[in-house]
Amino acid sequence: YIKYFMDNNYFKEEENLSRDLIELKGVFNTKALLNDQFNDANIKTYYKYTSWAYGLFHSKNGSVHMALNYDGVYNPDGDFNQAREIDPLINENSKVLELGCGKGINTIYLAEKNNTSQFYGIDISKEQLRRAKKKGKTHKNIHFDCGNFQQIPFEDNMFDVVFGIETLCYSDNLDALLKEVYRVLKKEGKFIVYDGYRVPDFNQKSERLIQSALLMERGVALNGFHSMSDWISVSKSNGFDLVINEDLSIATMPNLKRLYRASKRYLKNKFLAKLILFFLPSYTIKNAVTGITMPYTLMLKTHTYNKIVMTKSLS
Predict the structure, then answer these.
(1) Longest C-alpha distance within the chain, in Å?
(2) What would the pLDDT profile of 50-84 be if each residue is shown by its tens digit?
(3) Which of 1, 147, 233, 253 has the smallest count of CB within 10 Å of its CB?
(4) How far apart are CA 286 and CA 308, in angstroms?
(5) Closest-CA residue to 196 (of 173, 177, 223, 176)
């Protein structure tokens, strides 16, 4: 029973997924969950009620994104690897914008490494921003504020670098999002994204895999990941040149297996699990659905986790 927690191959078996789906259905109304639809108000509520749970179960560092552990062993220091990889792309005296900054972990890390540059972070969650502002208040080169990346509250051609880590998946209008990023970036400015995506042949997957993918998305208040093929084509049509598109799914697995283990502990006693679900805000507990399903959706290649780097075209 314990061995499979350390073996990625376990999550390549649809039989194991089938057993876990049955276990989920014993606690959650998965049919209702599949019909959930989300808007900005829902997403704000989600982050309001899950903030403490992210701190308790997900990351003591304040991360609300996946740790990247390239050696296959979970280490919380992996929470900073996305920011570490962005750091070399920032030149002196740059202006940098994080879209969906959350609790500010990435912007603060980068601001400390680049004290001649100015860093800006926007988020729609007041709860997340409160924490970000508290952590970043001693840094004069950090500016956190409330804002929606569908309508970025900054001037044209202002930023040298714009990045988003596991946040742009919440945009339901990819074309509008990319137009806004293009608008605020300087010519040849860099746009960096770490996020989950649906694979191009998503709709040809088995019914079980599609259902698992939808449950994974709903568990974190997502209407659905963007298709990788849509992301690339819409980016190019809005004037971006693709520089890097790298699948980092395997690097997220140590973190995901840890969350899977915590979710399995929650489901172990069905009566207690239902009692907790009844008394706590449902958004807090639905994360367990994502905790169970996401290792499968990545290893069975229904979703991918990619690093994308683009530049604003000169033309």
Answers:
(1) 61
(2) 876 777 777 788 888 999 999 999 999 999 999 99
(3) 1
(4) 28
(5) 223
